[in-house]
Each structure stands twice: as structure tokens, then as C-alpha cells.
Fold this protein.
Amino acid sequence: MRTCALIPAYNEASYIADVVKGAQPHVDEVVVIDDGSGDGTGQVAQAAGATCLRSARNCGKASALRLGIEFARARNFTHVVTLDGDGQHLPEDIPGLLRVAKETGADLVIGARSFDRDSMPRSRYYSNTIGSRIASSLVGREIRDSQSGFRLFRLDKLQGTRLRSRFYELEMEMLIKMTQSGCTIAHAPVHTVYHDGGARSKMKPVRDTVWVCLWSLAFRFLGA
């Protein structure tokens, strides 16, 4: 396995250095895709040791990841691990994803969070559990955390696959299209940080879950 970490980031200067440094011991290269940040995120990431790809304007998470995937493909990486730049994904969980991939041979390993109602914001608990049930029914197999952006996947399994997403629907688009092409899926337990003073997600749980579900139906039944 030759693995590249892809970290899409938009105005994450306060967190990105820690994420980069945390990921470096576990992968061959850390790549931050600065999605039009105005706070120096790219400069901070580069100073921390990451390769930095920059977009002149904010185009959305999916657009940033597509740029990163093309970079990783051109550099002949076999696997890509994706994680967020805001500190919600702990880089020390990366070895767990790598271990599951090696043990199972899975094409896609999803970093699955433990959905504890007492430790998660209520809106996120329901958006994630409902979204995962819908995803499981759409792909015909158990998906424990459909909205998790913490994933490891084989690059060659995306060869020839057109990814159209611009925002948070990318995780479901990849999941549906990879399962339709016969890819195998496994899960690895990961932590997620939820607290007011630290990591924070830009995703709006209710609005974006509805958006993702609608796009998921299009990906599954309309061949979008």
C-alpha cells in the first residue's frame, strides 16, 4: 500500500497544522486542498509539512477532494485516506483504517463513529442514524456511518468513475457507485470530537442530510 492523506480545508488555519502533523507518521504523503481559504490555511498547512493544492475560490468539499484524487492518481498512490481539516477526525485513527484494509482486502473502509445519543448533538445523532439506514437500503448492505468523511479507498476502483458531486453528497456518491461496480466495503471504528470550543463541522445536519438523500436517490436510480 502506498497511501496519500487528502485533507480538504476551508478557513481551518487554527486546526490544520495539528491534523497534518498527526497524519504524517501514518501515510506516505499528506496533501491539503485549500479550498479558497482567506485565513492562511494553505500557508499553515505547508509550513506543517503538507503538500498544498490551492483553489482560487471556494468550490466546495467535493470539488476539493476531486482535485486531490487526481493529484494522488498522477503520483501513483494505491490508496487514499480522506479526513477533515477541522479536527473532528483524529489522525491517530488512520492506522485502524489501514489495518482493516490489509486484513479484509476491502476496497473501501469507512471510519464508523459510535452513535451515542448522550455524547452527540441531537441533530447529528438523528441525521447520521437516519442517513445510514437509507444508505444501507440503497446499496443492499449494512452501512454503519454513511456520512463519515473519514475513509480509506483503493484508487484503482475509481478508475473510469465520474464523480459529479460538489458538496457533502460526495461520500454517498462514492459509496453507491463503488458498490454498483462490485467493490467490497468494511468498517473501522473511529473517534469523533464534539465540543463547542474546538472542532466544528460546516455541515448543517438537517438541510444537508435531506440534500444528500435526494442526490443519493439520483445516483442510485437515475445513474446521475
Observations:
- Residues 86 and 135 are 25 Å apart (CA to CA).
- The two ends are 31 Å apart (CA to CA).
- The chain has one domain: 3-221.
